[in-house]
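Question (not urgent): is this output format expected?
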Amino acid sequence: MQKELSGFLVLPDCDEAAAQCPTSGVDSGFQVLTHPSGRPWLVAPKKTGKLGEGDGLISASAGTTRLAVIGWSTIGESELGRWAEKVNSLADIDQLAARLHGSQHLLASVDGAVRFQGTVSGVRGAYYAVHRGVTLASDRADVLAAVTGAELDEASLAVRLLIMSSSALARPVWRGIDMLATDSYLKLDTDGRADVVPYWTPPQPELGLEAGAVRLHTALEQSVAARAGRTASLGADLSGGLDSTPLCFLAADAAAASGGRLTTLRIAVDDPAHDDHVWASRAASALADGDVRHHVFTTKDVPHMFAAVGEPITGVDEPVRWIRSIERLRFTAKWLAGNGAEAHLTGHGGDEVLVAKPNYLHDLTRRRPVLARRHFAALRAMKRWSLAAGVRELADRSSYPQWLRQQSTLLSDAFPSPHTPPFGWEYPLRMPPWASAEANRAAAGRVREAAGSVRPFSQDRAPHLTIDLVRQVGAAVRQGQLVTGSVGTPLHAPYLDDRVVEACLSVRSEERTSPWTYKPLMAEAMKDRMPADSLRRGTKGEFSDDLQRGLHRHRDQLATLFDDPVVGRLGLVDVDQLRRAALSAYPPGLPMAALDTSMAVENWLRAQERTKNELWQEWGEGNAGRTAR
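Got this back:
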């Protein structure tokens, strides 16, 4: 199993930072990649594997320039070396960043100045903090918390209870640790000071369906190739849907080209109304050529939903949003690793980028009112929207900051009726009914704070919401990668790669989305590679039956998790109301995500003592006396 660096420290090129490097010689437990000056630049524990090719990192130097790529990419060491020869400033890295496929961190040291960035989705996160007068950076917030001795931020934990959140509210759960905006890079000067420099802007949605489909196909093909290029074998979900199934066909091609093997997997559902198996079987038959193995798990083979939610999840630096399926994620990671697959391709992010959410009608009403009326009438009939509510929402002209300020006053309100069209800038911000008054006040304060400083990602609501959701799903995938990678094969989400996100955003929203065709962009992009039958699917698997079975089977886990919960001791929830909802009478109409967020925060808090002790021993004051709490 190839290892990948996770938990590394990035240092500016100055003596003050070098003095804080948590290493002192060959027995320190750390390995170091240096600036051209010889000072430490990239520091990682030896347990993550050798700093070099095959371990998720390639680097190249030329003169006073050094470049490094950490992750999964189509670029090789020789090509990176050619870039190093022609880079004269940090701004020149923009061209390299725009050409990278896959998912990776990008670092540069040029004449003593440092550039550090992750991905637009945040799957590759970047964090920074000031310690002893200089700015340090890392791919993990908890590493910086260990180095600086940061304390938990209760207001950030309160925000994590939101049923559906906003990327405008995303920040680490430690005081003094900042998260780099995903459209920016962090610049570290030789005096240890930092600047956040925006470099990425979403493409204008100017392409029609046909041209956009060509761009999407190329981007997805390259994203899958980035994974296949580093491994002999791939694993992939094969649900039969239009997110995972196209990846299976592209993965089969990539594995064949690299002399590898593809293993697909599907978890059966007991609900007789669920039709994934029909479409997955058709796709599997069409993938019969080549070295492809298919495996179907029954519900008796795999952990149920809610299994192990009461067991603290270590090794993650924020609450795991996908906590109800955490044990299933671990199971598939171990199984794929045992069957030789080194990357697990999933369709996560497909729903977010392949179609525009219904608020595209708000934008379309201004640009093409006649077409907007047709789309609205069709969607209203399908979703049973209230006509009065629809007209009211379409007439709203609130700016994004105004919308956020309004949401800050509604956090304790009931979740909106499904008959109200979701035409706002983002999904409604609501706290669970068991959130305390203190938690509501803290979250409202953060929303108002965001309203005073943030700008929308686009002047139109649909592209803005797409990017917002990409970043939220990206945060969930990031934690999922940490969990799965710690026990077996890490999961990957090619739909969240930068070039794929750009390809989808470049297509006009009304062509990405249609009331009459399911995911038309994907159907067009894969028409020459997938069977027409598979591309005509218009249904999507529904998992409420699976969820309820798991909830009934594992109520003991919920009882354990919410027995004297830490969130209650911190004053964030009404414990009796939370336990009643989790164990006996879940409020009707309340999304299950409300329980997910509370489970995630409680589980993470319970894991902190163990995780904190390990990190503090590795990165903190006890290590060679180089860092302080």
